[in-house]
């Protein structure tokens, strides 16, 4: 009788569009999650977020009960709809990233079965957090230039994303509204340098350019695009040279990535769908599924300490559509 009453009230509220159907257990999970991530809402917001959270949680549980190469989990984004997430964190302007003919020249291998630049030396900086700004492209850029500089000089700098947000507009970049690593490398090349994170700190907002030439800490001699869809060229570059910046399409199944090799049937694979930029720091293979090791810019709480693996060899989500890296000064 009591259960029937509860169900009836929930159904009534649902029909009245006041609150979704959820179970007490689900609300309990939500409250635990709120505590974990220090979330506070007013009452109306609470039910709205509980609704979104519950949908995500059910999807995550359903996914994890099936057989997949990756698992999903709750994270700091679990109260956001994908539409909200896209607006806040992804590239909002369509990016024309095509490099139909890139200038990367591949060797003919052979390549090692696995490569991880994090293990080769002090070549990869810690995972950073882009905040509420579509500046992923700046983190992909600094990540790659930091590594390229470290490999060339033996010293790993921490470079300024904010300088790219504020100053790289002339190269078809748009601050928190998006941009492309290849275009940001071009900016650094023609601007004659990028400052450090310390000298030009990250705010996560569009601001006016405050570049100080005397404080430039890293340089680009030239920009190398890898020809669109030449994923073997990416393997060649990562195996022989350095980590590589690339773009791909994030779809809603990616938000709750937790670990394993991400693979999707919903994302698209062409240059005009790219909405996120990241850094390939290595590759490998697990249970005969080849993958990339990728550094993201959503903090260390997301994914595998801020990293993810994504299937390699099939242009998954367009990851081979636009990849690039800079050449250091000699
Ligand atoms: C992207 O490229 C297409 C085809 O070359 C062109 O029509 C379109 O205007 C470009 N869009 C932007 C935002 O540059
Ligand atoms: C590299 O690709 C970008 C777009 O992704 C393009 O703007 C740039 O001109 C290309 N650079 C070279 C050297 O081909
Ligand atoms: C994109 O995916 C479709 C369907 O799997 C495939 O037929 C096509 O060749 C892919 N295109 C590229 C550029 O990878």
Could you characterize the architecture of this molecule?
- The protein has 9 helices and 9 strands.
- With 330 residues, the chain is of the alpha+beta class.
- It has 2 domains: 29-67, no CATH class; 83-327, Cysteine proteinases (Cathepsin B, Chain A, Alpha-Beta Complex), CATH 3.90.70.10.
- Strands 1, 2, 3, 4, 5, 6, 7, 8 and 9 form a 9-stranded mixed β-sheet that branches.
- The chain starts with a helix and ends with a strand.
- The model has no long low-confidence stretch (mean pLDDT 92).
- It binds 2-acetamido-2-deoxy-beta-D-glucopyranose (3 copies).
- One 2-acetamido-2-deoxy-beta-D-glucopyranose is lined by residues 229, 269-270, 315.
- Residues 111-327 form the Peptidase C1A papain C-terminal domain.
- This is Pro-cathepsin H.
- Residues 1-18 form the signal peptide.
- Belongs to the peptidase C1 family.
């Amino acid at each position: 009788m009591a259960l029937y009453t509860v169900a009836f009230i929930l159904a009534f509220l649902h029909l009245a569009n006041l609150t979704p159907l959820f179970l007490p257990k689900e609300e309990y999970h939500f409250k635990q999650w709120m505590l974990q991530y220090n979330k506070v809402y007013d009452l109306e917001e609470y039910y709205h977020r509980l609704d979104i959270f519950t949908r995500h949680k059910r999807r995550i549980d359903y996914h994890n009960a099936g057989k997949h190469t990756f698992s999903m989990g709750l994270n700091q984004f679990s109260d956001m709809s994908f539409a909200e997430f896209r607006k806040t964190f992804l590239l909002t302007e369509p990016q024309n990233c095509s490099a139909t003919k890139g200038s990367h020249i591949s060797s003919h291998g052979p390549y090692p079965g696995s490569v991880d630049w994090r293990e080769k030396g002090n070549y990869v900086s810690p995972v950073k957090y882009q905040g509420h700004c579509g500046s992923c492209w700046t983190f992909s850029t600094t990540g790659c230039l930091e590594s390229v500089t470290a490999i060339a000089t033996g010293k790993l700098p921490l470079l300024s994303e904010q300088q790219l947000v504020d100053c790289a507009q002339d190269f078809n970049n748009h601050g928190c509204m998006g941009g492309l690593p290849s275009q940001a490398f071009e900016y650094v090349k023609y601007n004659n340098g990028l400052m450090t994170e310390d000298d030009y700190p990250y705010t996560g907002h569009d601001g006016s350019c405050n570049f100080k030439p005397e404080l430039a800490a890293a340089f680009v001699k030239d920009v190398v695009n890898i020809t669109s869809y030449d994923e073997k060229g990416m393997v060649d570059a990562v195996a022989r040279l350095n980590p590589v910046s690339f773009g791909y399409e994030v779809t809603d199944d990616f938000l709750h990535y937790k670990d394993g090799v991400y693979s999707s049937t919903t994302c698209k694979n062409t240059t005009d769908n790219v909405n996120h930029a990241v850094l390939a720091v290595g590759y490998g293979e697990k249970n005969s599924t080849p993958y990339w090791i990728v550094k993201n810019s959503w903090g260390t709480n997301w994914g595998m300490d801020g990293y993810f693996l994504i299937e390699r060899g099939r242009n998954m989500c367009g990851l081979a559509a636009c990849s690039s890296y800079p050449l250091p000064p000699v």
